[in-house]
Amino acid sequence: MTVSQQIPVATLGMPRIGRRRELKFALESYWSRKSSAADLLRTGKVLRASSWGEQHDRGVSKIPSNDFSLYDHVLDTAVMVGAVPSRYGWNGGEVPLDVYFAMARGNQGQTEDCEPTGHEHAADGPGVTAMEMTKWFDTNYHYIVPELDDDQSFTLSSAKPVDEFLEAKTLGIHTRPVLLGPITFLKLAKSPAEGFNPVALLPRLLPVYEQLLRRLKLAGADWVQIDEPALVLDLIPNERAAFESAYGQLSKAAPELKIMLATYFGGLEDNLETATSLPVAGLHVDLVRAPEQLEMAGRLAPKDVVLSLGLIDGRNVWRANLPAILDRIKPVVAGWSLDRVEIAPSCSMLHLPLDLRMETALDANISSWLAFAAQKTDELVVLAQALSQGRETVADVLKASTEAAAARATSAKVHDPLVEGRIAGIDDSMKQRKSAFAARSKVQASALSLPPFPTTTIGSFPQTSQVRKARSAHAKGELSYVDYDAFVKKEIETVVSWQEEVGLDVLVHGEFERNDMVQHFGEQLSGFAFTQHAWVQSYGSRYVRPPIIFGDVSRPNPMTVRWWQFAQSLTDKPVKGMLTGPVTILNWSFVRDDIPRSMACRQIALAIRDEVIDLERSGAKIIQIDEAAFREGLPLRKSEWKAYLDWAVECFRLASTAVDDATQIHTHMCYSEFNAIIDAIAELDADVISIETSRSKMELLDAFTSTKYPNEIGPGVYDIHSPRVPEVAEISALIMLARERLSDGQLWVNPDCGLKTRKWEDIRPALTNMVAAARALRKKVQAEGVSADAAHSRALF
Known about the structure:
This protein has 27 helices and 18 strands. It has two domains: 310 residues, TIM Barrel; 260 residues, TIM Barrel (Alpha-Beta Barrel). The protein is of the alpha/beta class. The strands form five sheets. Strands 1-4-5-6-7-8-9 form a seven-stranded parallel beta sheet. It has a five-stranded parallel beta sheet with strand order 14-15-16-17-18. A two-stranded antiparallel sheet has the order 2-3. A hairpin with a 2-residue loop joins strand 11 and strand 12.
């Protein structure tokens, strides 16, 4: 390799939320009509300029554009190609903001969600439901699922990629536009047509991409990054053929415009030959998830194809051991020409916090082991410089990297012999309930005396501005412990009283003392570190600060018992103990990379087990252990599923099984396709599982029906991710769809998810309608003469 020039550095994509969450506040201000569309768009422009400028100053040579989104890049792509479902009233032309946000969030009608725009057609009448939302591959980022009919047509309806390229150009920054690839877009889509595969729409979609590529070339682009993470999935032969035909066609659309085909989230494996044979100018490979593919990719790819090496982890916060990376790749790339290599993160850094320098309160030792997006950008530049000009040019940086890795490996903060000993003592008896579900469900029915179709919520109630202000003031020392404690008690009293008033059957305490369903627990467990400003986007304006698991995990003290006891003292109805499950805590954290994920999860499971035991001893009859992210951790390749599901199920059972038969264990799972993992769901052996089904019109229940799932289920009948208030008839229709798939004795009635992000004015009428729908159904069942036995011996009234 020659050293006459610098190897290019690419970031693939950057966090788009702003250093101070500027995008979140701009969105929510716009949705609440406190600011204009111009204000929102202006904020986006400022954030893009800041990101481009910082990357340029740090030495990035392949700066992405069109990686920014007001809500979601998959939704942006659907809008760009004119895939707007008919219910939104769009009749062609540019898609207005009110239509864009209605697709993402739904609306109540009469522009409830945003200020007048001159395009009110999408909000007229009773409002529209949002499109389905689910997880982006195996990350905690949610995307809006495109809806495509078998007769779908496409048209170029947005010039956003061109506009943002030109926007950067006016600032003197030449960018590489990023597009979601056509095949990945189609594979992520759903269709109402039974048995129809949206990939069949590729011939209709490609002309739109061709038109866009030509426009980018005319605007002055020389490279375009097209993301096709679908290439790391299990593909069937006709899907591989689709890649060949698609890129054969796209490569001719604008011949001078070079395509960097980006793959990530895993290895190409049996798709490597296909990927390296495509007529593209560059190929990005993830060498963090699949380091073994470098040598084969180098052999198979044509010599004139640029290989983008994903060397730095774009999904986790650990500082890289730069000398170790150089030692690994240098022998492979030593014989390559310099212009064949590009240095990049494993994937877009969308999934990372922005800048470690903002974390002034973090433990100094732990901070020295971390790198956020800005610091990882610097690591990329160092790697490129070391490969281009020799290690001696960055010797001090490489030495510091080695020292940080060694300090972390030997730190007493990381390793706890007591935890390691407890893990070694796990046996099979710790993973089983005392009795099978059929037996214990009868005991629970007698102990709880719930009516048919019992109503409940998933756990949290609105985190109002007053709640957030009180928590913030207490954290800053501006509100005393006594005053904060009194405030939380008052909130719990209010929410328990309201739940009794509206007629819910199983209550919750509202979780007003909790900042986040994972962070709240991590802050009370050993082995976790927390940040002040390390926000990452989950969906839309919903951002989270994932905990950082840096060491062995244990539970020093009870975490939830006190507030549960207080809530239960206020009512004769059962109040659920609310916990987050070990798999979700793991999957929604930045996890240590020095031990297997399964080992870290077992440590968390034992800590949650201790809490479950303490709740039961305190009198809790129902304990909910949420596993919202259970499916999210599923590997992308089916050959790896069993290993993950085995230890994930084991961890849930470790956490949940140390209770008597009369104690009812609930769990909750977010947007999940259950068909492929229904056996594992059954193995969890939760007494009741609640799932998000409202947007899918109960389609997700089909998996439970086909396998004759025996335990009880609460299919969500109220979409809490939308500001819409569903009417009684709408909820009743969803319940009836559920009854077509499940027995009455299995059914609970609940919202899709927790209510933390909603407003009281949304949820009061929505939950009132939900309870009314359940009560109407009870009367209907009674009128039909259905016996109490059909509802697991629950009393009718």
